[in-house]
Amino acid sequence: MKNRNYIRIPTAQNVSLYLEPAGVGDRILANILDSLLIFGLIIALIFFASFLNRFGLYDEVYVETLLSLIFFVPYLFYHLVSEIFLNGQSIGKRQMKIQIVRLDGTAPRLSNYFLRWLIRPVDIFFFGIVAIVTITINNQGQRLGDIAAGTTVIKLRPPLDLDKMLSYEFIDDKHYKPVHTEAQMLPEQEIELIKSLIRQKPSPQNTQELEKLAKAYRQELGISSKVPPYLFLKTLVKDFIYLSA
Q1: pLDDT tens, 120-158?
Q2: Which of 30, 141, 195, 242 gives 96 a disulfide partner, CB atoms 3.0 to 4.6 angstroms apart?
Q3: 12: which residues sit within 8 A by CB, 6+ positions away?
Q4: Domain limits of the chain?
Q5: What is the DSSP string of 161-219?
Q6: CA distance 216 to 162
Q7: For the whole model, what pTM was predicted?
Q8: How many of the other CB atoms lie within 10 Å of CB of 158?
Q9: Is residue 93 classed exposed, middle or buried when 0-12, 13-18 and 19+ CB atoms within 10 A define those classes?
Q10: What angle, 0 to 180 degrees and rounded to 10, lies between the N-to-C axes of helices 24-54 and 125-137?
């Protein structure tokens, strides 16, 4: 197991979500993909303007105006428009499986997207060095625009294989309330490991493994629970399935 950097975000149901901030590399790659898309869009629009000019569908003044708009509109407004209409993602962010969220747990508003967009020129100044430095030193993965808007960018988790996770039934109460919300920070593979140990018949070796595992997870997740190792680990699995589903 290794230490993980997560952001704690409250929800209206009084349950904290632990989300992993998108790394600098993910955000740079997303921006490169978006820049390539913008460049491709500009090239396509230039060809379209040339087509209009060639066939005399517009006079030269109109074409020049159109070309001016072609160079500035996609570049200036792409991120703002895409994040508003794609629920906190651009095409690049969607490909990199990252998304904008608010730190207070509510859905981002138009004002949040606008603030991020307004400060974007400062963040991308000199090849994005301002954003890179800010994200690196900020423990919540925020660039200046995020800090102003109260947002951050998180990694999206892959869909949970519920059939696999529920193959050994733990949750039989529809009104179940999670005990340790920190369980969300565990990868699905580690949850499967815990399940496999719990399934095994009791033995001195199995009991020792459960004690070691419970101690390790208590330390890693900062949980001070004193319940027996078997019950503690079983609760972690239940909480993980409930919160991830």
Answers
A1: 999 988 888 999 999 999 888 999 999 999 999 999 876
A2: 30
A3: 105, 106
A4: 21-155, 161-244
A5: -HHHHTTS-----TT---S-GGGGGS-HHHHHHHHHHHHSPP-HHHHHHHHHHHHHHHH
A6: 26
A7: 0.71
A8: 8
A9: buried
A10: 150
